[in-house]
User: Fold this.
Amino acid sequence: MRIIGGTLKGKNINLPSKYAARPTTDFAREGLFNVLDNEYEFADLKVLDLFGGTGAISYEFASRGASIVYCVEMARENASFIKTEAARLGLSNVRMVRANVFDFLPICHEKFDIVFADPPYALEGLETIPDKVFAQDILYPGCYFILEHGGEHSFTDHPRFKKEKTYGRVHFSFFEV
Assistant:
């Protein structure tokens, strides 16, 4: 796995063997960030990455100049890896938050330019995540909540759905405040 763009473009992310997370593929991350590159100036963005997993999405935003990226991950080993890898890469703008996303959202009092979520595709209640995020009023007006999911889910009927992008088996649904 590698960082696709920004100041750290091409740097490897050194996942340990038997890592307990499904990383977003390089192909899908490249597609996602091509879309975002056309819609956002990354400098000074404030980003929330829910279900951090490997930290790859957080590293991409940080490498492109986001001012701060909060990465929320519940698994102790994964959270430790994300924090260590961010330090190794020199990404002081990545802040690791070790918490259950569903416990974190109600106590989050910050606002963000982008909220990204990559839950396990088989997570029970995955379809409720957009409403849980919007109920917390954590996005600035006109900004995106992006949910990564498999093809078994569709969010086109959600009132805040804006568009969906598909890269192989990876789907990104974009919602707007």
Q: What stands out?
A: The CA atoms of residues 16 and 157 lie 39 Å apart. Strands lie at 46-50, 68-73, 94-98, 112-117, 139-149, 161-167, 170-176.
